[in-house]
Amino acid sequence: MTIVEPSCYAEAVKEKCWQEAMEAELNMIQKNDTWELVNRLENRKVIGVKWVFRTKTNSDGSLNKHKARLVVKGYSQQQGVDFFETFAPVARLDTIRLLFALAAQKQWKVHQLDVKSAFLNGFLKEEIFIEQPEGFEVSGEEHKVYRLKKALYGLKQASRAWYDRIDAYLSRLGFTKSISEPTLYVKKDEKETLLIVSLYVDDLLVTGSKDELIEDFKKQMQDIFEMTDLVLKTYFLGMEVNQGEQGIFISQQAFALKVLSKFSMSKCKPVSTPVALGEKLSSTSEHNRVDERGYRSLVGCLLYLTATRPDILYAVGLLSRFMHCCNGAHFKAAKRVLRYVKGTLNFGVKFGRSKELKLVGYSDSDWPSSVDDMKSTSSYFFSLGSSVFSWSSKKQQTVAQSTVEAEYITAATAVNQAIWLRKLLDDLNARQMEAIEINVDNQSAIAIAKNPVFHGKTKNFKIKYHFVRKAELAKEICLVHCCSRDLLADVLTKPLTSGRFECLRKEIGVCCLVAKEECSKVATTAATCMLPCNHAQACK
User: Fold this and answer.
1) Three-state SS across 361-396?
2) Which of 359, 488, 357 is nearest to 436 (CA)?
3) Is residue 444 pLDDT above 70, yes or no?
4) Are the beta carbons of 452 and 505 closer than 8 angstroms?
5) Where does the Reverse transcriptase Ty1/copia-type domain lie (predicted)?
């Protein structure tokens, strides 16, 4: 049955489950000593508050709990009066996937800690007064207001206050913050990495070489903050995480099912590729305009799905170029991506163990891919052992005058990412001793990076892209020629045939994870197996 969430206090107070949720929220606020009741001052601004109600669900869609949140109406705050600094960093998805790849290589387990009402723990530097919450006014003192000691949800500086608090506490515990990733904290000695913590707002991902250190860290966190120990991480930011002896598998099957249901594509016919071969989309094509709101919502859902599905990244990047001028052709192409997702619902990225922990990059471009402005597409992959963990496919900002220039610009983008990943691995005690190999399928682009004799042919190149030469000379990276047939990034630049696409999809580590016993439930023989993947051997 559909769960209806109340829109205001008057609706919520009619149901016991929401009353208990509001009481639990106020109990947490009182326990954290978040505010104090004071007299209303005539010359001070008082900010209003509002109740917000949400139902929390599990990865399978079942009800987890009813959640009530007291939120400050932060839109009425004035900069320089009620708040100053507001920015708070969160972990990049590339960093999170890097931790999965590293943990799979080292055979570590990834744990998750959830801080209850995290923003209530941040100390405020400003003096802020708020109204008493509706339905919970103190009897006989309704005229008074609350002065905040700590942050509440809705305040513009709430996230910054929480980050400052957790950052200071982790530093006191002996962690070193990464310069390249301000949400990554590492505790290590000269020989090994002892503990790694990655912060995403109120969720902490914890992994390391010693289980006893992880348990000690959990106790230290629970001494200061109200925590939910989720033990081994199984669900995070819409990603389902399966940790086993063979490695770590991440997917978004539950989210994909929701997207298909939302756009009435649950019973659509699957296709083998996300983009039709030879597909060329344009903003000037003569097709009927469609609802921009629905199109943007669909592309936004698909963009979120690329967190674990690099095989649809090119298609989604192509569709996102027409947010402002979508028509029937664009919507048809977007529905084709959904049809591909329908046939590969249980696909994701699997991180396993390989012979060596080596960072390798793949760079490719398609010149000129855009019909409207003739700009090229840049793409890259980076792998650490068995599967890729970092990927990108974007339209270039300038018009390349040749294939060489397009490839050189793409290589520069990949070099930027490689240098950042190299620093990140240094912080994690996984130093890359040799230059990072970046595979490129254009020999002229490699020659320009290695030999300044070609400067006469590169007058039209922007100066900022020539730092590739400097990185090459410093032995930080090494551009290596790779046959186009073996270049993994080819799947991110253009539509491919079904056979070629499936081959590259397998090479980048996108697959499905179904246990043998689950296969046997679906079919007893390989001939009758109806799974959307090749499980012939498992079925046998």
Assistant:
1) EEEEEECCCCCCCCCCEEEEEEEECCCEEEEEEEEC
2) 359
3) yes
4) no
5) 32-275
